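A quick aside before the break. I want you to see a complete sequence-to-structure record at least once, exactly as it would be stored in a machine-readable document. Don't worry about memorizing anything.
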Amino acid sequence: MNKYLIEVGVEELPSHYIEPALSDFENALAGALEVERVAYENIKAYASPRRLTLIIEGLADRQEDVHDKVRGPAKRIAYLEDGSINKPLEGFMRSQGVEEKDIVLEEYKGEDYAFALIHREGQETKDLLKTLVPQAIRAIHFPKMMRWGGKNLRFARPIRWLVSLYNDEVLAFDLEGIPLDRYTRGHRFLGSDHIEIKRVEDYEGLLEENYVLVDQDKRRESIQYQTQRMARTLGGETHPDPDLLEELTYIVEYPTAILGRVKKDHLSLPDIVITTSMREHLRYVPVYDVEGQLMPYFITIRNGTDDYKEVVSQGNEKVLGARLEDAIFFYEEDSKKPLEDFVPALEGIIFQEELGTMADKVKRTQALVAKLGNRLGVGKTTIAASQRAAYLAKADLTSNLVQEFTELEGTMGRIYALNSGEDDIVGQAIEEHYMPKGAKGDLPKSTTGSILSIADKLDTICGLFAIEKLPTGSQDPFGLRRLVIGILRILRNKNWNIGIDGMVESSLFTYVDQQGLTFDHEEVRGKVLDFMLGRASNMLLDEGVPYDVVDAVVASTEDLSASIFTKARDLEDFLKEDGAKAFVEAAERLGNMAKHREETMTFKEDLLEESEEGLYKAYRAIKPQWEDAFSRGKYREALDILASLTGPIHDYFEANMVLVEDPALRANRLALLGAIDEKIKKIFDSANIVM
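That is the input. The structure line, written in tokens, reads:
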């Protein structure tokens, strides 16, 4: 079996580009090999800032041969009376690339047909790779791409070299004239720029000799080991930080940990200010003691050896020291006045040109948190705390420190609030109202923070929809999808089943009442609700809920709330039961008939005929049980209760014609069926279920 190595050598790639690019590269080549019927054992995918590498092991010599039988025209039109080939068969043979000797007659559905016996020998694998590999390289996608040197190829950074080895021989192909050979390059400063790879199996070892750990997993493990060991020698530890670790892994090729020290004077700053400077700005690793307190040390990861580490350490300390000196100045200046004194300056910060200033947003949010609090039934103390937090939530945006360290918005608001004597819950809510900061980010823990977070996000969503700043396709410049997902995650986490329709109404009203904004209320309201329902649908699909279950629950949703997630999960679980199919069929029969019901139709027990009593009595018996289960959000239980009507529903349709000529009787029957249908559609619409 064979081995194949392809290395794409580039100028340094941004760290967050590398993992997705490597995945694209591997998937593209693996998919192409599968399509072309080329067997292999496994693919090793390696990446560093300067290279993307795939090593294919156990590669077959050639494609699998094709042995197939393809049906062509019927014998009666395939041949003329004298037995010679007719035009339909001639065309078929040409399309399949076969001759008359490859045609056989076989019976198919009671009639003789011409079949082509196809045999094609597979091509040699190395010949196929000459086409597949350039295609795979072109399939790599980056958020931003460029052209260089007059080439048509688009890539994140210029490709400077290619290594293509099939076992021990160079496998040449053309990619815009980029140099291709068996020579790779080591570390930019410490290694050779002309390393000969004689065999594929030599690749990793030769690069390591030239100060490149090409295996990203080994680099990651090395960084973790070195930082943890260094911290332990100081009596401390490092805290898990997956994002920082991933970035460090992809900005170095030969990681070496170097210790640095934080000046004692700088430790007067809040820990979060120091660690933000370290992690976000300089990619340093903070060191903590066993109680979680920040120690006066940090660890940096150098791309190279530990030569002259004292000089490197001093340089790192100077860079951090300069940033912390600025931070101390800003922090001391900000601390000269209470947080609420920063609020008036929000008049000078534009939220959105057509939606006013940040001060206007604060007023709208204050009104909205009160309405949300009342709808949730929380206490007056919580509502008051939410309104106070809303008033102060954006104040830190005008502080010196946040203007310099924008990542600390909300966090500094909490710190300044507590320093100003505000209640702990107010400070916590100020920080939490920005949560979640990503699709999987931490959620607010407090009720106050959750209410404020929802109100702040909803104000942004409704305002931007009102002025037609909507997401289009993949474009979402204001991050509205992220904000909607944040609201839905909070509602789901808190199990708050308040309808979003009323929340949207409240938000749109504040724009009219306080801002004097004019827009088509019903149109905007509808667009916002559809947008939010679409996000909920996507969230369920991303979680693996079957598409028909999602469609069924979405179709039955009149007012979106957190209950949509529970309904979908409970329905998915219910549909796995043996009797589910019969119930869905019964529900669909019921739903089809209920479409004929008019709003004025009401049920009258005295119009019941004997053949209808079975369903009516069964429904009357389960109705209170269903209402109790549904009101408690126990949708699986509610579905089981409804499923007990499966037999009576089918029996009803067998014994009764619903659309009879007697208008009173027809209306009564439709009213009964409609009442049951309404209960089912409170959970799902059976028309969307695929059984």
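Two observations worth writing down. The longest helix spans residues 309-334. The first strand starts at residue 2 and ends at 10. We'll return to this after the break.
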